[in-house]
Amino acid sequence: MQAFSHLFFSFLVILFAISCSDAFNRNDFPGEFLFGAATSAYQWEGAVDKDGRTPSVWDTFSHSNNRGNGDIACDGYHKYKADVKLMAEMGLEAFRFSISWTRLIPKGRGHINPKGLLFYKNLIQELRTHGIEPHVTLYHYDLPSSVS
């Protein structure tokens, strides 16, 4: 009986997936609707100790009590060109990302990190080169530890 239940449930899942597969397409959305993806610096960039970035409150929190951390994350800091290429191949029109305060202004105020600024400039240029509209979040909960 249990094998039949699993088989029947699997059949229902497949039937549901088939019935939903053509439920929507781009023509069902207004012309100004943008299809895109989003992430935050801490979840995507990694490279926590590269090019002048300093620790954020997320670094401190995630390293306490043996929690998972974003030290490498998706390594977008090094792989952004490949990521943007994948976005373009998927047909995405927009990408929302956050700017890491600790990468751009390592001490929380004052000096701007030229390598951090160059990273975001290059990312935005890469997005535009592929016809993807950048949307920037200026703060996504990555307060520099030195400021908290």
UniProtKB/TrEMBL annotation:
Gene3D superfamilies: Glycosidases
PROSITE patterns, alphabetized: GLYCOSYL_HYDROL_F1_2 (PS00653)
Known function: Degradation of glucosinolates (glucose residue linked by a thioglucoside bound to an amino acid derivative) to glucose, sulfate and any of the products: thiocyanates, isothiocyanates, nitriles, epithionitriles or oxazolidine-2-thiones.
Name of the top EC class for this enzyme: hydrolase
Keyword Lipid metabolism: no
Catalytic reaction list: a thioglucoside + H2O = a sugar + a thiol
Keywords: Hydrolase, Signal, Vacuole
Signal peptide interval: 1-23
Localization in the cell: Vacuole
Similarity comment text for this entry: Belongs to the glycosyl hydrolase 1 family.
Enzyme Commission number(s) from the entry: 3.2.1.147
SUPFAM superfamilies referenced in this protein's UniProt entry, alphabetically: (Trans)glycosidases (SSF51445)
Recorded GO CC terms: vacuole
A Pfam family hit: Glyco_hydro_1
InterPro entries xrefs: GH (IPR017853), GH_1_N_CS (IPR033132), Glyco_hydro_1 (IPR001360)
Gene Ontology biological process terms from the UniProt entry: carbohydrate metabolic process
Organism per entry: Brassica oleracea (Wild cabbage)
Protein name, per record: thioglucosidase
One GO MF term attached to the UniProt entry: beta-glucosidase activity
